[in-house]
């Protein structure tokens, strides 16, 4: 093929001779002569025709070779070269050779000469590319198969260590190497770490390599591939005698994000000539290793974002839920203790109101850092919602957990209330957090700035406090104000109170808790005092914009109740009356046991009253339809236990769920009449008053 190319050059542009310059063995990217006799064409770092072509990717003309530094001074005259043209031969996206075209007599090399020469060079490059492809297809080389297997490994695992191990194994097999290894840069310390190796000593993994040390160190020093047939002469290898038997090595760089991030090396215990194809194969596998590292980095980033609270940098709600379940499983298996802490900042709302949300955000970040400073490396902290944090302490019993809680309180200046709970067998993640939350409630209700530990005494103290909460006079005064504002309120609220009190009793709550829920039900619409009158009096359904305004009423209600000492205990129930069991409600998206039980009761009872009450814009549902809707929402919108209690209270057996898809009408399987099981309700309760 080259003879044909040389003949065409003579014919088209009158060239006297041509020479194909191949890539040098010693330095990837440096070109050298085809034979030693052509040493006048060599170059290193200085200016030359080949260097210019490599740098620019374009042909380079030298009309006066005797005075140009494109050829070693004196050699052009010695070899009778008066003018020269250096032309790149490129295929597969890179310059593979440089074509030197020479004339014995000086001539001005025209643009047409350059175009013609480049055209012939491109045709030759296409031919070489075809030959190379045919040769590779014909031989079915071991190297090709190794690269294919290495590429396949990328799709089989997201575990970086596993993928890198496969890649170094394939690199050694492809080049028939005695050892191979991948080194990943430690950008913080300025060195590299041996990460995965093939037939390397056990002590090799984790080895730190400085720039310039060994073959990989040379890559980190220069950013370019490195080949040596005299490995023992490399500086710094005296520090690693376990690998002193190595003689030949090749190492190539791994780049991503425009940074040198790694090196892939193969070594032999004998002297071996490293071919260009070896380097290209190793670069291909290094490219796959780079993809693996980028994928792992991206995957880790996504995982980090998914489990981290964006404001504070600690775990978020979902990640902590997962960690609690994992630690409970480990504690159950190993028999180790496990402690949980819920910490709530006292009067945090006042910070936002008086100093602004930026100050509140900075306070949350400061608290998160302070909490992390009090924990062991394997303890966990999460921002669980708003100004509430959860700590998980594996291996800590109740006493140790309480001590940590005290330290955390002191670390943030005592401006928080804390609930502590210790896991015991039979307690799931929701139960553990509910116990800690009950203790937190006691800490809040008894002066704030203190730590309370979950135990039976906590429940007795809470029951006593709850029985005293909510002055009947204050409750009735507010209820009258609500009724004055909204004519629809009185009748449906009285029914709601009766249902809520009955369900609370069916759930086995103590009398103080029952009355607290009843008072909250009576005042559940207190937030409407802050709503526009035209929305309250509207006959038809609300628009989206009107609904957004009205959906603020639980928050407004909480604020109204919180201002009155006697009613403050009702505020959380009213705020969360629209939270759903699966976390899709509002205003805070709480879920399951995180929702106050009173809020869960009011939501279900309110739904029943709303469904069975005729409104100007829709008729009331039948009893069967109402039961169906409540059952359908159990476990998603409603607490299943609350729904069971409500239906038991009303005297409904569990109905046969109608099959809507089959066209069965909702009324096809009516439940028993509510009057048939009135006796199922608790003492002192009667449906409808």
Automatic annotation (TrEMBL):
<dbReference type="InterPro" id="IPR029787">
    <property type="entry name" value="Nucleotide_cyclase"/>
</dbReference>
<keyword id="KW-0808">Transferase</keyword>
<dbReference type="InterPro" id="IPR003607">
    <property type="entry name" value="HD/PDEase_dom"/>
</dbReference>
<dbReference type="Pfam" id="PF13487">
    <property type="entry name" value="HD_5"/>
</dbReference>
<dbReference type="InterPro" id="IPR029016">
    <property type="entry name" value="GAF-like_dom_sf"/>
</dbReference>
<dbReference type="Pfam" id="PF00990">
    <property type="entry name" value="GGDEF"/>
</dbReference>
<feature type="domain" description="GGDEF">
    <location>
        <begin position="336"/>
        <end position="456"/>
    </location>
</feature>
<dbReference type="InterPro" id="IPR000160">
    <property type="entry name" value="GGDEF_dom"/>
</dbReference>
<dbReference type="InterPro" id="IPR003018">
    <property type="entry name" value="GAF"/>
</dbReference>
<dbReference type="GO" id="GO:0052621">
    <property type="term" value="F:diguanylate cyclase activity"/>
</dbReference>
<keyword id="KW-0548">Nucleotidyltransferase</keyword>
<dbReference type="InterPro" id="IPR043128">
    <property type="entry name" value="Rev_trsase/Diguanyl_cyclase"/>
</dbReference>
<protein>
    <submittedName>
        <fullName>Diguanylate cyclase</fullName>
        <ecNumber>2.7.7.65</ecNumber>
    </submittedName>
</protein>
<feature type="domain" description="HD-GYP">
    <location>
        <begin position="467"/>
        <end position="662"/>
    </location>
</feature>
<dbReference type="Pfam" id="PF13185">
    <property type="entry name" value="GAF_2"/>
</dbReference>
<feature type="region of interest" description="Disordered">
    <location>
        <begin position="658"/>
        <end position="689"/>
    </location>
</feature>
<dbReference type="InterPro" id="IPR037522">
    <property type="entry name" value="HD_GYP_dom"/>
</dbReference>
């Amino acid at each position: 093929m080259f003879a044909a190319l040389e003949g065409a050059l003579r014919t088209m542009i009158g060239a006297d001779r041509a020479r194909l310059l191949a890539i040098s063995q010693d330095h990837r990217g440096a070109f050298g002569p085809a034979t030693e006799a052509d040493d006048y064409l060599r170059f290193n770092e200085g200016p030359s025709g080949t260097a210019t072509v490599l740098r620019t990717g374009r042909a380079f003309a030298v009309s006066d070779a005797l005075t140009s530094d494109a050829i070693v001074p004196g050699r052009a005259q010695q070899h009778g070269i008066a003018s020269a043209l250096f032309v790149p031969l490129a295929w597969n996206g890179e310059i593979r050779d440089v074509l030197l075209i020479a004339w014995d007599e000086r001539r001005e090399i025209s643009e047409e000469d350059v175009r013609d020469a480049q055209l012939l060079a491109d045709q030759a490059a296409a031919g070489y590319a075809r030959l190379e492809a045919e040769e590779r297809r014909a031989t079915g080389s071991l190297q090709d198969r190794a690269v294919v297997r290495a590429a396949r490994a990328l799709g089989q695992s997201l575990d970086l260590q596993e993928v890198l191990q496969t890649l170094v194994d394939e690199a050694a097999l492809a080049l028939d190497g005695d050892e191979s290894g991948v080194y990943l840069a430690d950008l913080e310390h300025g060195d590299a770490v041996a990460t995965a190796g093939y037939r390397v000593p056990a002590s090799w993994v984790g080895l730190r390599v400085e720039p310039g040390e060994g073959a990989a160190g040379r890559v980190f020093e220069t950013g370019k591939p490195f080949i040596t047939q005299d490995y023992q002469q490399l500086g710094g290898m005296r520090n690693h005698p376990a690998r002193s038997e190595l003689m030949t090595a090749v190492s190539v760089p791994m780049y991503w994000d425009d940074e040198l991030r790694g090196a892939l090396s193969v070594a032999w215990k004998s002297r071996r000539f490293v071919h260009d194809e070896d380097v290209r194969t190793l670069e291909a596998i290094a490219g796959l290793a780079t993809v693996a590292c980028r994928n792992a980095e991206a995957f880790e980033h996504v995982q980090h974002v998914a489990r981290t609270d964006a404001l504070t940098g600690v775990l978020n709600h979902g990640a902590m839920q997962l960690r609690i379940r994992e630690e409970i499983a480990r504690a159950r298996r190993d028999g180790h203790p496990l402690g949980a802490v819920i910490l709530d900042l006292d009067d945090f709302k006042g910070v936002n109101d008086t100093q602004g949300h930026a100050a509140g955000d900075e306070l949350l970040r400061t608290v998160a850092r302070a909490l992390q400073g009090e924990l062991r490396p394997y303890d966990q902290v999460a921002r669980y919602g708003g100004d509430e944090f959860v700590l998980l302490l594996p291996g800590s019993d109740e006493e140790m957990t309480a001590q940590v809680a005290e330290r955390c309180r002191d670390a943030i200046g005592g401006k928080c209330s804390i609930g502590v709970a210790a896991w015991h067998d039979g307690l799931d993640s929701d139960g553990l957090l509910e116990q800690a939350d009950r203790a937190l409630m006691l800490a809040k209700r008894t002066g704030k700035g203190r730590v309370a530990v979950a135990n039976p005494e906590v429940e007795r103290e809470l029951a006593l406090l709850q029985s005293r909460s909510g002055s009947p006079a204050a409750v009735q005064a507010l209820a009258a104000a609500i009724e004055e504002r909204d004519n629809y309120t009185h009748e449906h609220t009285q029914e709601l109170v009766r249902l809520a009190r009955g369900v609370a009793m069916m759930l086995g709550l103590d009398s103080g808790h029952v009355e607290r829920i009843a008072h909250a039900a009576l005042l559940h619409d207190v937030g409407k005092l802050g709503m526009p009158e035209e929305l309250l009096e509207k006959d038809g359904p609300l628009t989206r914009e009107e609904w957004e305004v009205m959906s603020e009423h639980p928050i407004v209600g909480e604020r109204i109740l919180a201002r009155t000492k006697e009613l403050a205990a009702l505020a959380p129930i009213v705020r969360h009356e629209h939270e759903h069991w699966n976390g899709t409600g509002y205003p805070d998206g709480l879920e399951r046991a995180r929702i106050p039980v009173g809020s869960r009761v009011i939501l279900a009872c309110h739904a029943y009253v709303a469904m069975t009450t005729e409104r100007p814009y829709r008729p009331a549902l039948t009893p069967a339809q109402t039961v169906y809707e409540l059952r359908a929402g159990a476990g998603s919108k409603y607490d299943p236990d609350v729904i069971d209690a409500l239906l038991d209270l009303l005297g409904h057996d569990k109905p046969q769920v109608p099959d809507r898809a089959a066209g069965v009408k909702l009324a096809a399987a009516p439940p028993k009449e509510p009057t048939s099981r009135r006796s199922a309700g608790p003492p002192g309760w009667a449906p409808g008053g």
